[in-house]
Amino acid sequence: MDTVNLLGFDLPGLAAYCEQLGEKKFRATQLFRWIHQKGASDFEQMSDLAKSLREKLGGRARVQALDVISEHVSADGTIKWLFDVGAGNAVEAVFIPEDDRGTLCISSQAGCAVGCRFCSTGHQGFSRNLTTAEIVAQLWFAEHSLRRRQNTDERVISNVVMMGMGEPLQNYDQLVPALRTMLDDHGYGLSRRRVTVSTSGVVPMIDRLREDCPVALAVSLHAPTDPLRDQLVPLNKKYPIAELLAACKRYLEKAPRDFITFEYCMLQEVNDSPERARELVRLLKNKISCKINLIPFNPFPASGLTRSTNARVQAFAEVLIQAGIVTTVRKTRGDDIDAACGQLAGEVQDRTRAHIRMVRAPVNVAKSAG
Ligand code: SAH
Ligand code: SF4
């Protein structure tokens, strides 16, 4: 008989499952705490669970993490794991320690179908959505292995960002229970402000997330105009900037923070001129409460793009700051282990011929340079 992986249930889901087994709902809370708060995977370990329940679970259920293919530790303390998700696919998660927090960046898909030009995951194409269990397993493994390593019972991961491989809002149904497990007081107990979904702009799903599970939202903008954004983020042809910003405004009605973060990957001579910065000011200023996070492009083989020089990044930031828009430049972490944004490549058995598509439609740098 196939056993069910309990990492795939949020607490209401686990309660329903326990009821099916003829168990009281509160048993689910105990079980959930054992799994997520204590990192237990062996039912026999769960000493205060009724023996009858432990026996029932034994034959039917499991708590199954992902196999770790590799682990790399950067000189700055960043850790990158490569997890096997079967059939030749592997996904990455990155832990970024800072003085006042520990952030885990996790993946939502094996590959990505959006195909952004500057993203190595996009270049690899798409294989499949991760399940809720596979999304949660990245956090479960990272949190509990870090606690063991640091020899502590205290929480190590305080923030989760859905900024690894994949477009989380194109895997909505598996994403939401995973977010709920992160937020649940009996699970990881993270506050909504400390769980961030990053999206390239799947407008209808931004609206659904607002109703179902409003966590912090980051939107990958990368360009101030539709012609340029169409080239960098192909999804823009379906959901152009005006529609995207309207969805962001609606999101703010329920969001745990009173601003949206716009991410902007700085590509030399493509989207990084002062004129582009002024266009961005015209687009956003007094229109929407936001912060801008400039991400220096992290190059990877075959991208054909270059990172903006520091001087260009600074000049761009200056225009935004002068206009009163809160702007930060993201520090690159884990550079030496290819763990920086957009370098997460994992291993993807592409089913979309992404590579061929991209070669046929290179970014028109001449047209878009400003
Ligand atoms: N699919 C989601 C989340 C994953 S990508 C999204 O696009 O938002 C996470 C962030 O890394 C996004 O802001 C993305 O634009 C950025 N990124 C992708 N490739 C990059 C690269 N090569 N250099 C720097 N940032 C990159
Ligand atoms: Fe997908 Fe995000 Fe990469 Fe674009 S940047 S290809 S949406 S993972």
Using the alpha-carbon principal axes, give the shape.
globular
Q: In total, how many beta strands?
A: 14
Radius of gyration: 21 Å
Average of pLDDT: 93
Put simply, the count of helices is 13
Task: Indicate the proportion of strand residues.
Answer: 15-25%
**Oligomeric state as shown:** single chain
Ligands in the model, by name, code or SMILES, are: S-adenosyl-L-homocysteine, iron/sulfur cluster
Strand order across the biggest sheet?
3-4-5-6-9-10-11-12-13-14
* CATH hierarchy class name of the largest domain: Alpha Beta
Q: Any guess at the CATH architecture of the largest domain? A: Alpha-Beta Barrel
The largest sheet is:
10 strands, mixed
Distance between the termini: 62 Å
**Helical residue percent band:** 25-40%
GO biological process, one term: rRNA base methylation
GO cellular component, one term: cytoplasm
Subcellular location: Cytoplasm
Pfam families: Radical_SAM, RlmN_N
